[in-house]
Specification:
The complex is a heterodimer of chains A (about 170) and B (about 150). With about 170 residues, chain A is an alpha+beta fold. Chain A is built from five helices and eight strands. In chain A, strands 1, 2, 3, 4, 5, 6, 7 and 8 form an eight-stranded antiparallel beta sheet that branches. Classes of the chains: A alpha+beta (about 170), B alpha+beta (about 150).
């Protein structure tokens, strides 16, 4: 897989009063991620080629991928493929990069979602709805010790677009 | 091609009324908005300005919508030479209750083709709105050096 064929489709930047190590830990630990990522647990083997997995609260596989860049506590790039039948065959891989940079007494976390082919805005609406909620909650958790109680269903326009492409959804 | 615009969504543990005050009260904005006080009588059509600590005006435009605590819109452009000749761009704030939280959506549009102001606001808003969220949730603003945002000059 060639990373340079992937073009950013969604970028979200947030500043957090924390250290880079704390943000890295929050992004890569199962226990921590469960608290801000809609109950989902990140399991990651932190080396190039290592497995990246996100488990739903019931333990089932929600997202599967592989580590492509791993430079703690600065940069992490993984494939982030939602485990819905035919999704990768129809849309190709989803690439997610987290960059963590110092910014005064805070750090800047930049999330980039990228794809290697044009993807319809209806499909991208899932990530564009989800990332701000997930990362707002991550910030609250690191700054206050308590995550946000954000609950949301996948956007209807995304589910309909996936269905049109013959991609199975829950 | 869609029109160039900036969109940012954040979720904040607060009330719509507190968020409204944080977005419109100069005493409050001074604490999280790089020391800038917003100055306006907030009547639709009135002047809108961002005023630095030394009294100079950094950005200027006018009030377009004022509907507390739901919708606020104003135009502005930065007055530095970097953005010379670029028109004021329309920033809209939509405040929605979301369970026990508040969802804030900020959009800005109306940028000049090939201008630099879209890049400027794209770097500025995430820092300002992250500081706003921290202020409302923890009482403490972030201290982000201006240089950390890597604005073009």
């Amino acid at each position: 897989m060639k990373l340079d064929t992937f073009k950013p489709t969604t970028v979200y930047t947030i500043y957090i009063a924390a250290t880079r190590e704390q943000v890295w830990q929050a992004l890569t630990s199962a226990e921590f991620s469960r608290r801000y990522f809609f109950g989902n647990a990140v399991e990651i083997d932190l080396k190039i080629g290592g497995a990246f997995i996100v488990r739903a609260p019931d333990g089932s596989l929600h997202i599967a991928g592989e580590v492509f860049e791993c430079d703690p506590p600065r940069k992490l790039t993984v494939t982030f493929n939602v485990n819905w039948p035919a999704l990768v065959e129809r849309l190709g891989a989803t690439l997610v990069t987290y960059e963590i940079e110092p910014a005064g007494n805070a750090v800047r976390l930049t999330l980039t979602e990228a794809h290697d082919r044009p993807i319809d805005d209806d499909i991208l609406s899932g990530g564009r709805q989800g990332w701000p909620a997930i990362l707002s909650s991550l910030k609250s958790l690191l700054e206050t010790g308590t995550p946000l109680a954000v609950e949301m269903a996948p956007p209807q326009r995304m589910l309909e677009a996936l269905k049109r492409l013959g991609i199975g959804t829950p | 091609m869609s029109k160039p615009e900036f969109v940012y969504v954040t979720y904040i543990e607060t009330t719509p009324e507190n968020l409204w005050e944080a977005l419109t009260d100069g005493d409050f904005t001074e604490r999280y908005w790089f020391g800038v006080r917003l100055r306006s009588d907030w009547k639709v059509g009135s002047a809108f300005e961002m005023v630095r600590g030394d009294g100079s005006v950094s950005d200027a435009g006018k009030v377009i919508e004022y509907d507390p605590p739901r919708r606020l819109a104003y135009t502005f452009v930065n007055l530095s030479d970097t953005y010379k000749g670029e028109p004021p761009a329309l920033a809209t704030f939509v405040i929605e209750p979301y369970d026990k939280l508040v969802k804030l959506t900020v959009t800005q549009e109306g940028f000049a083709e090939g201008g630099k102001f879209l890049d400027g606001v794209s770097k500025g808003w995430p820092a300002i709105l992250s500081g706003l969220k921290s202020m409302l949730e923890t009482g403490k603003p972030l201290e982000i050096p201006y240089a950390a945002m890597k604005f073009e000059s």
